[in-house]
Amino acid sequence: MDAQINGLTLAYTDEGKGMPVVFVHGFPLNRNMWAPQVQALSRQHRVITVDLRGHGESDAPLWRYTMEQFADDLTGVLDHLSIQQAVMAGLSMGGYILFAFYRKYANRVNALILSDTRAQPDTDEGRAGRFNMAQSAYTQGSGAIADVMLSKLLCPASLHTRPELVQQVRGMITAMTLGGIAGDLMGMADRPDSVPLLRTIACPTLIIVGELDLATPPSDARLMSEQIPGAQLKIIPGAAHLPNLEQPEAFNDAVRSFLASIA
Ligand code: MLT
What we know:
α4 (124-140) packs antiparallel against α8 and α5 crosses α7. The radius of gyration is 17 Å and the shape is globular. It has helices spanning 35-41, 67-80, 93-105, 124-140, 142-153, 156-161, 163-174, 178-189, 195-198, 218-227, 243-246, 248-262, and strands at residues 2-5, 8-15, 20-24, 46-50, 86-91, 109-115, 205-210, 232-236. The protein starts with a strand and ends with a helix. It has a single domain, classed as 3-Layer(aba) Sandwich (Rossmann fold), CATH 3.40.50.1820. An eight-stranded mixed beta sheet has the order 1-2-4-3-5-6-7-8, sandwiched between helices. The mean pLDDT is 98. By secondary structure, it is of the alpha/beta class. It contains twelve helices and eight strands. D-malate (MLT) binds next to loops. D-malate (MLT) is lined by residues 26-27, 92-93, 188, 215, 241.
């Protein structure tokens, strides 16, 4: 399905009935990364996944993106679906977006699930890396981004023994347009420090991280869980930056029990 939001066509999936749970994907992926969650959780909940601008089947305007603008797009999807409040779940860049979302639309958030993300802004070195990645995308295309990103997203065991998973993730990355890749990179480089926000988060919060995540390691997850009042932390063994795809049962169990605890 799709909707006209903020002058763009945004694609989304809306499955099941019950408490709405919105899943926000990471960079440089799309809503298909949530397929195991849609399948498992839509039996009990209303599960919504959205292709952010620049991703999947949504429009990919050529311009600088911001985390706040992604948050505005998500609010547009909630309005389109007449959902006043939802559990908002984001992985990595999806988490950066949820910090912007909470800053502006806390009244729309029933609970937060923050997976493999961090509250700190980019370091100068991190920003320089974004610039270099945008240049690689510009000169060599999205295949070069897939080559760099795969080993950040998946743990060595997934890379070596799960060719279909590797192919699925590669396919999402190579489907990205240059506008989408560069827009995300500029948006992430410019995102503000969300550490001061953590203490003010007043909704139930679950933090999940892959034990082997090197991009946003368990130490980043611990920082969030120590500063967000009452937050729960779940570390998933045998997964790196995409525990929802690498260990879907463990990820879904964590989400399911969290949702049951707030229902
Ligand atoms: C993501 O998975 O969204 C990215 O790895 C986040 C980032 O590059 O900071």
